[in-house]
Amino acid sequence: MPEAVVIIVGAGPSGLAVAGCLSRLEIPYLLLERDDCFASLWKKYSYDRLHLHLQKQFCELPHMSFPSSCPTYLPKKQYIQYLDDYVAHFKISPMYQRNVESASYDQDSERWVVKTMNKEEGCGGEEEEFLGRFLVVASGETTNPYVPEIEGLSSFDGEVLHSTRFKSGVEFKNKNVLVVGSGNSGMEIALDLANHGAKTSIIVRSPVHFLSRRMVYLALVLLRYLSLSKVDSFMVLLSKLVYGDLTKYGIARPKEGPFFMKIKYGKYPAIDVGTCSKIKSGEIQILPAEIGSIRGNDVELKNGKSYQFESIVFCTGFKRSTSLWLKGDDYLLKEDGIPRPSFPNHWKGQKGLYCVGLSRRGLYGSREDAQNIANDIKSSL
User: Fold this and answer.
1) For residues 75 and 80, what is the distance between their CA atoms, to the nearest angstrom?
2) What's the CA angle centered on 64, arms 62 and 66, to 5 degrees?
3) What gap in Å lies between CA 347 and CA 327, rounded to an integer?
4) Do 332 and 349 touch, CB atoms closer than 8 A?
5) Per-residue H/E/C for 42-109
6) Does the keyword Manganese apply (predicted)?
7) I want to staple 112 with a disulfide (CB 3.0 to 4.6 A). Which of 20, 135, 190, 372 is the partner?
C-alpha cells in the first residue's frame, strides 16, 4: 500500500498550506481530497460577490505573498488565482475523489492507516489504504452543509437551497426570498438579493455585533498591544457610534464582546459591507424568530407570525465529519471536530496526529498552524 511520511486529509487552503510548508522542507506527503479539485468550497460552492473579509496580509498562505497588484480585500476570483499559483509554485498534486472512510493508528507499525473510497471515474468505488507516520486533519470547519430539520420543509412549493448552492441574486429579482441564518454568509447573501431587486427577509434570532472591515483591521492591530476585553469594549463603542441603536430594526447587540465570542463560541461578528444600510432603509426585513413550520409557501415563525416566500436560502453553516472517520483519538479533537487543547497548543495531538485551520482564527490561523506542524514534523525526523 502507498506510504508517505505525512498524510494530509483535505485540500482546502489549510491543507494546501501544510503541503506548501512540507514541500519547502522536502518532506514527502500525500494529500487526499474528497472532491475533484482543491479549494472546492471556493471554486464550486461560494457565491459570486464573495471577498476576503480581512486585509490580504492576514490571508496569505505560508511562504508566498499576494502580488502587489492585488486589492486590499481580494475578490473570490483573485483569491482562487492565488491558490492556483500556490499549488503550481509548490508543485502540489492532491489525490482527488478520495473519500476518507477511516483513519486509525497501528501500534505495531507505528503508522497511521487511512482507508479511502476512490470515486474517480473508472475506479468503481475502489477501496484504498495509505500509510503515514504523521496524519494532518485539514478537512476544516466547513465540511458538510447543514440544513435544520423543519416541520413541513418538504412541502415548500418554491426553491430551497443551502448557501453553498447560491451564486447570485440576479435570478431572484422581484421574488420574495427568505434568508435563514445571520452569519456573514447570510448577511452578504441578503445584501446581494436586495441589490438585485429581491424582496428580502432574513431571520436574525440571536444578538449580532456589526463591525466594518476597518474596525476589524483596527482590532487585529490593537490586539497586539491591548487585552481582549479592552479591544472588545472599544469595538462595541465604535459600533454604537457608526451603526447606532439597531434594536428598532429587530437586532440586539450581544452582552459579550465580538472577539471574545469569536474565540469562545466560534461566532464571528457580522462584517458589514452594506447590509446594515439596507436593513435601515427597509430593503431587507428582519424577522427575529425561528421557523416553526412550513405549509406550501407559508412560513410560520415561532412567534406566531406567518409570511409567504417563493425561495428560501439556508445560511446555516456546516457540520464537521471528522468524528465519523478519525478513530482512537481521545486527546486532540472533540466530537464536534474542534480541538480539545486550547490555543496556542490546539494543533498538536498524540502519535503524530495534527490538525490545521480549526483554531477559529481564519486563514491567518491556518498559516500559523501549518508552519508549526511542518516544523514539528521536521524536528521529529
Assistant:
1) 9
2) 120
3) 17
4) yes
5) HHHCCCCCCECCCCHHHCCCCCCCCCCCCCCCCEHHHHHHHHHHHHHHCCCCCECCEEEEEEEEECCC
6) no
7) 135
> Is the separation of the CB atoms in 60 and 85 below 8 Å?
no
Regarding beta strands 126-137 and 353-355, do their DSSP bridges make them parallel or antiparallel, or are they unpaired? parallel
Provide the pLDDT for residue 121.
76
Nearest to 207 by CA among 245, 255, 241, 240: 255
Domain ranges of the chain: 3-143+320-380, 145-314
Grid cell in block for residue 221:
492591530
**Residue carrying C-alpha cell 490586539:** 223
Asked whether 314 and 125 are in contact (CB, 8 A), the reply is: no
Give the pLDDT confidence score for residue 223 in this predicted structure: 93
Cell (9 digits) for 245: 441603536
CATH 3.90.226.10 fits 145-314, yes or no: no
Chunked mean pLDDT (size 10), the chain, 381 residues: 93 98 98 96 96 94 96 96 98 96 95 94 83 95 88 95 97 97 96 98 96 95 95 97 95 95 88 97 95 96 96 94 91 90 92 93 92 98 92
CATH architecture of 3-143+320-380: 3-Layer(bba) Sandwich (3.50)
What residues pair up with 271 in beta bridges, in sequence order? 211
- Integer Cα distance of 355 and 102 in angstroms: 16
C-alpha cell recorded at residue 316: 446555516
Instruction: Kindly report the length of the chain.
Output: 381
Q: Side chain identity at 187, as an amino acid letter?
A: M
User: Looking at residue 330, what is its pLDDT?
Assistant: 87
